[in-house]
Each structure stands twice: as C-alpha cells, then as structure tokens.
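Box S1 | Example of a co-folding query
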Amino acid sequence: MLDYQLIRSARRKTLLLQVKQGKVTVRAPARLPLSQIKAFVADKSAWLKQKLAEQYLTSQQVNTVKQVTFTQNSPLFYLGVEHSLNIEFAQKSAIYINDLSITVVLSYRQQSNIEAFHGEAAHHELIKQVRKKLSAFFKQQLHYYLSEKLPLLTSHCQLTPTSYKIRFYKSRWGSCNSRGELSFNYLLMLLPSWVIDYVIIHELCHLQHLNHSKNFWQLVEYNCSNYKRAIAWLKTHQQQLIWS
Ligand SMILES: [Zn+2]
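Box S1 (continued) | Returned holo structure for zinc ion
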C-alpha cells in the first residue's frame, strides 16, 4: 500500500490525487468514507507508481537557487508568470499551458529512447528532450507574438527593420546589426508582454542609434516610458530566465 497524506475539506466535491516531490496527497470531500478513498487510491496505484518513478528520475537535485532545471515541478516562467513544469508521457508529444502549469508531454517513443540510457544519463536525456520541446514551442509562440506586435511597434516608433529572425541566445534578448536586421531570443516568451515590448522597442531604437549612447536611451524612453521598470524586472528575475 502506498503512503499518502489525506486532506479533507468541506468545500471539495471530488477526489483529487497529487504527486509532488515524491509525496502523494489525496484531497477528499469532508465526509467521504475512508473505504472509498482507499479504493480510489488502489485504483490509481499503477498511475501513481509511474508518476513517483518519473519524479524520482527528475527531481534528484533540490534547487536552492531558483534556476531553470526542466525537472518535474520545477518553476518555469511563461509571459512573466511562474508556472510549474509538469512532464508526462503519452502516444503523441504535446504542450499544454494553464494558469499554473506547463505540461510537456513526451511521446512513448521518446520515453523508450530516454529509458535506453541509465541513471544520470537518463536524467540528462529527459531534460534534453523537455528543453527541446519547450524551445520549439517558445519559438513558435514568439513568432505569433512578433507577427502581431512588431507592425504595431514599428509604426509606434516609426522605425522599420529590414528583416528579423528568432533564435536562441544564452545571454541577450535581441540584437540589431548595421544592415537593420533584428534578432530576437525565443526566451522572450518567458517575460511579461510589457517587458517583451520593451525589448522590441530597444532593438528598434538601435535602427537609429547602433550604440547605447545617451541619445539612444532618450529615444527608448520616448517610445517606452516604463523602460526602467522593464529593465528592473529583467534584473530581478534574471536567475529564473537563464537557459544555460
Ligand atoms: Zn542594446
């Protein structure tokens, strides 16, 4: 029999099973008979064992510093809101996002590829696959975001790039070269939209000043009055935004 913590609540209407950091919690309506709860847990025991095994595999390190680890239940930002990363396996891979969590579903095929490795290597392979899935997703999301927002900000700043592309940078959000080509880091999707917009405006202003001179910052301020707040947000959260 599995160990679990039972939390009863008057407000709760249905049974809920949670597995977090290797611990099982059952949330139940206040007066539901214990026999029904036990039957429910027994019924889910195969799922629970799989979940516990996955978490054992993915949560061996406890994070004291909040960095992106891509492990089960680890924090991950999306549009400026901290979400909890949930890793699952199913027939087809997918990504689902709600207010609280980002669920990365890897396919059974990916799962068997991961399980072909052992111990630490399997852990690394899992992280690699999760990260790859998230990267592709953020890239696509930023593509949607830019195709909507860039024309608006271009006309707002009256500065138009020759072209732009989306890529990964370890330690910068975007870039602008002397040919007027802009690049944006797909990790921009981790930031609140008002901070993303600051980064876009920042790069657009480089079309006029290809430096960080006083004139450049004046132009940024003119087009983005809360740019100091945006820079402060980036600084405050930098640890949680780095994908090394
Ligand atoms: Zn710059």
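The helical segments are 34-43, 45-58, 108-115, 120-157, 193-205, 214-223, 227-236, 238-241. Residues 139-241 form a domain with the Zincin-like fold (CATH 3.30.2010.10).
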